[in-house]
């Protein structure tokens, strides 16, 4: 019998990363940051925070829950004075969801305060943390993001930005940082550009954000992507670009296009919406099927389903209706009543489904438990045939760069063949987009095996960096001795 989590169509998707935002020199910095975080809410729904600097002191509000639950209140914004601000919306990949892990994190250093927000995951974060604690550091959180505060504090370099870069050189993995000091807003992107970061401008003030949709919501102008391995320093004098790392080709995360980024964002010059439609069209070319109607799994499967339907010459219909006004499913006393709770969030549109051959389009399959329920939902609504099509390749390897994937034994595609997966789901047929198809849809002739254009290890097992914590001593470390009520 499925658990209540299995009945939520969102429960078996990859969990989001985090969203970061920063603005320098605007009199309404906190309010603008709150709006920016609202646009980035899809990147993390567990916690959020804003830190501002008013010229004399830092002001911080960090809360569990959604951005709108806290930062839509006037009194909260009024407690965040200052023309400089950074913000963070969080989904935890390292560390528990407790208040002491909520970002931005803050520390008082010899030269003043330093607040930092981080999207990504350090693959040597636990190892660095262990070494820092051995040398006397006191860690207050269980987040790998706290490491940068200690590394900056311990650097022997004189200028802050040199200390910040010194810290970056000790890190492995994926990161997009925004940081705030007494005099500057600083941003940094990892040498491969795995995690995204963009530069914008509003009323002459520079902005750093995870996605362009955060600029659109406040009417800001998109300036450019922060380059892989680039550090930007924003002060009253303007903006300075520093490129301390050896130049290598960028290798951004392919999942920004498949799932994470909002469809209205532009990522590395490509419209996310257009790329997802091309995924669907390529999927139709690779695994088209004789059917009556194309149905998306809402909401992430919608653009690919449109592309599939257009390429296949089939009608596109909303065969699954999502209720956007329902939060967490009520806790019900019996299993039979729990199973009815799924209909509060998603229900089959029988008028579209009954008696028809359905092509279901989803963006990915992780554990596969939800896919079983989706197929059964179509059967219960009277579908004649159910053909499942996935607009990404099979996920066969876990992620260590900020995406919450299960270990490999819990990834359906890692332990089952295509036919076994089809039988497990109860579909009439099952097909995934090929790895080469992903690259073709993104405008490349093929994947370069020597220098892959994307970070795609979840499909290929080709990890782009060292994974020190996975095999090293850091993997065995207990993160915290303190149990804290959430």
TrEMBL record:
Membrane-traversing stretches: none
Free-text cofactor note: Binds 1 Mg(2+) ion per subunit.
Enzyme class per UniProt: transferase
EC number(s) given by UniProt: 2.4.2.14
Catalytic activity: 5-phospho-beta-D-ribosylamine + L-glutamate + diphosphate = 5-phospho-alpha-D-ribose 1-diphosphate + L-glutamine + H2O
Binding annotation for Mg(2+): 300, 362-363
Cofactor: Mg(2+)
Domain Glutamine amidotransferase type-2: 18-237
Pathway: Purine metabolism; IMP biosynthesis via de novo pathway; N(1)-(5-phospho-D-ribosyl)glycinamide from 5-phospho-alpha-D-ribose 1-diphosphate: step 1/2
Active site: 18
Record-linked Gene3D superfamilies: 3.40.50.2020, Glutamine Phosphoribosylpyrophosphate, subunit 1, domain 1
Keywords noted in UniProt: Glutamine amidotransferase, Glycosyltransferase, Magnesium, Metal-binding, Purine biosynthesis, Transferase
MF-aspect GO terms: amidophosphoribosyltransferase activity
Domain of life: Bacteria
NCBIfam families named among the record's database cross-references: purF
Role according to the record: Catalyzes the formation of phosphoribosylamine from phosphoribosylpyrophosphate (PRPP) and glutamine.
Similarity comment: In the C-terminal section; belongs to the purine/pyrimidine phosphoribosyltransferase family.
HAMAP family: PurF (MF_01931)
Protein name, as recorded: Amidophosphoribosyltransferase
Native source organism of the sequence: Labrys monachus
